[in-house]
Each structure stands twice: as structure tokens, then as C-alpha cells.
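Morning, I've got a small favour to ask if you have a moment. You're getting the sequence in one-letter code plus the fold written as C-alpha cells. Thanks so much in advance, here it is:

===
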Amino acid sequence: MPNPAAAPRLNRLLAADGRCFDVAIDHGFFNEAGFLSGIEDMRRAIGTIIAAAPDAIQLSPGMAPHLQHRPGAKPALVLRTDVANVYGRPLPAALFSRLIEDPVGAAVRLDAACVVVNILLLPGQPAVHERCVENVSRLRAECDRFGMPLMVEPLVMKGANADGYGVDGDAAKIIPLVRQAVELGADIIKADPTDDVSIYHRVIETAAGVPVLVRGGGKASEEEVFRRTHALMEQGASGIVYGRNVIQHANPAGITRALMAIVHEGATPERAMQILNGG
């Protein structure tokens, strides 16, 4: 069970229906030029998403002030606390995953509602997985001290090729990594969709009551994003964490509003398309 002291922040993150749409805009943290598409001007990008009013925005420590220093009501802050070099093209000779210094202290000072950290499972890289487990364990202890909710992102990757690692949607790999994250003390899980969306209820089940927010992954068509999101919510997901499918869209505010309707109102993919088109 979550630390009761974390309840006030969890209540800022999760809406009254227990669901959440977190827009991830932390891609620049990973030192990849291709990740900057759509967010070259972060002040503008953050302002656009604030105006669309998702439940939360996920940012790095250096960019979080652009959200938190704005007056008035705004989405909750989810603070990214780890940086990794596993997305390189080509991959670096040595891979790492490191926590920032004083991660929970930084989150408290920035008035974050939650911190997020990866558990990376990369083929042939057990040392990276070990470091991620250490990161989660360290964060869990600090989060308990300060009443800070901990979001863990179990991320299973396929073998590396010329384009680096790819996301692996194999349920047989995702499910045990999600369970490991829960058993390490996650208050919220951010996990990839399974290749077969119809079995995502098994991921929800293995999380044992911990809310599961589904990761968006790579860019896809509007129709695919809406169809998949609706199906995942029907399978019992508590929400979504989407980045590139929002910030790289021609209408980031419109697609945010459409996805909010799926997450919180049960809107169909067809209705979401109408909302995106101004209907």
C-alpha cells in the first residue's frame, strides 16, 4: 500500500475518477537530437499543453520551472529523476542509467506530485538492470521520508540494431518486470502496451491494485492512437503517459483534449476524432 503521507500528492495526480493523462515532455533529458522534434521551443510547447489541461505533465528538473512558475491552475508535475544513454544511434560503447542528485529533494522544492524512474531490461545488459533496481530502491526509501509518490517505468527492450534498442511488447517479458516494479514499491506503474492489447488485463492484474498508466511509445497515426488507447482503457488501465504522439502532432492541444475524453469520459475512437477536428 502507498505511504499514507503520499495521498495528497496522489490526489493531485489522479483525477476524482482515479485516472490520469500525463503528457511526457522530458525527451530532451536523454541527449538524442531526434527526440527534440516538436519541443525545440520548450516554453511554447509547455504553454500549449498547459492550455489543453491534461492531468499532469512529465518534465526534467531543468524544464519543470517553466510549468511550476506559471501562476494559476495548471497540470500536476511528474518529475523525471533518471537519465540514461540507451537510446543512442549508434549505441555508446558503455550504457548507463543514473539518478540525479537529491531527486526527492528536487521534487519537493519543485512541488511535484510524483517522481518517475525507469527499470530498463535490455538484452545482454544485466548491469544496467541492476543499476535501475538500485535506483528504484533508493528512491523508494527517500519517497517514504517525504510522502512523495513513486512512479516506476518498467521498460523491456528488444535486441539492439542500427537504430538502437526497440520496445518489446511481449507480455511474457512485460508482466514479470511490472511485478518486479510493484514489489520494489511502486505507487504507480508506467508500462508499455502489449503487442496483443486484448490481454492487457493481465498486466493490470499483476500490478495488484497499483494504478497502471500505459506508455505511448513511438509516433503512430491518430486512428491507431485513439483505437489503442480506447482498448487499453477498456482493459482496465488507469490512464496513459504519451509524449511523441502529442508533442509531435500538428495539433498538440487538440489531440490532448481528444485523449482526455477517452481517458475520463470513455469516448470512442470515433468521438475522439470528432473532438480533434473541432466537433
Notes: DSSP finds eleven helices and ten strands in the chain. The longest strand covers residues 114-121. The CA atoms of residues 233 and 263 lie 7 Å apart. The radius of gyration is 17 Å.
